[in-house]
Amino acid sequence: MARRLPARVYLVRRIVVLVALALVVTVVVLLVRAIGGGGSDAATPPPTVTTTAPPDIPTAPTSPTSTLPGGVTDCAAGDLALTAVAAAPSFGAEVSPTFTLTITNNGATSCLVDAGDGYRSIVVTSGTDRVWSNQDCAAPDADRRTLLLAPGMTDTTTLVWNRERSAPGCAAGLPKPGDGTYVATFSVGGAQAAPAAFVLG
């Protein structure tokens, strides 16, 4: 039969077992708290970052129509379409022939053209006879008439010929044109209209 150990030995063993159990419980509690704390941290939403949009930049007011916008250049001759149309196919005695002159911008952008009397040319001929031109007696400081033409825009004016003959230098005492067929040509800005035929008689 085995010999019974002293009571003190059994007491020591019980204390060791209790201490070990206490350590195990402590470790388990710490692990649970650590895991729970990590989950809580993960569930915390990140701080929200707000951004403020820049204020709208006010646009400049539209320039008045009397002010030319910057960057607009002269019309290219190829962008201008000109017409000269006689008011009637023939004009009786003492009736001054009248013509409608048009300038159209057929280009893709707005442009400038000077259609003043000193910058447009109207010439009346009869066969090889140069009868009259508005340039013959034009003043050196003739008024400018600068047009700002948007794409597709047309300017229309009327010209009246007084049935007088002229010559370069505005010579005087020239004979009056007689009856017959005449042609008026109109040009401005390097462009030219198709000749407009008419009859004086």
Descriptive labels:
rod-shaped; 11 strands; 18% helix; Immunoglobulin-like; single chain; three-stranded antiparallel beta sheet; alpha+beta; six-stranded mixed beta sheet
A few lines on this structure:
With 201 residues, the chain is an alpha+beta fold. The protein has one helix spanning 7-43; strands at residues 80-86, 90-91, 98-105, 111-114, 120-126, 129-133, 146-149, 154-160, 180-188, 191-192, 196-200. It has two domains: 1-41; 77-200, Sandwich (Immunoglobulin-like), CATH 2.60.40.2360.
Could you walk me through the main structural features you see in this protein, from its secondary elements to its overall organization?
The chain is α+β, with helices and mostly antiparallel strands and 201 residues long. The chain folds into two domains: 1-41; 77-200, Sandwich (Immunoglobulin-like), CATH 2.60.40.2360. It is built from one helix and eleven strands, in the order H-E-E-E-E-E-E-E-E-E-E-E. The chain has one helix spanning 7-43, and strands at 80-86, 90-91, 98-105, 111-114, 120-126, 129-133, 146-149, 154-160, 180-188, 191-192, 196-200. Strands 2, 5, 6, 9, 10 and 11 form a six-stranded mixed β-sheet that branches. Strands 1-3-8 form a three-stranded antiparallel β-sheet, with no helix packed on it. A two-stranded antiparallel sheet has the order 4-7. A hairpin with a 2-residue loop joins strand 9 (180-188) and strand 10 (191-192).
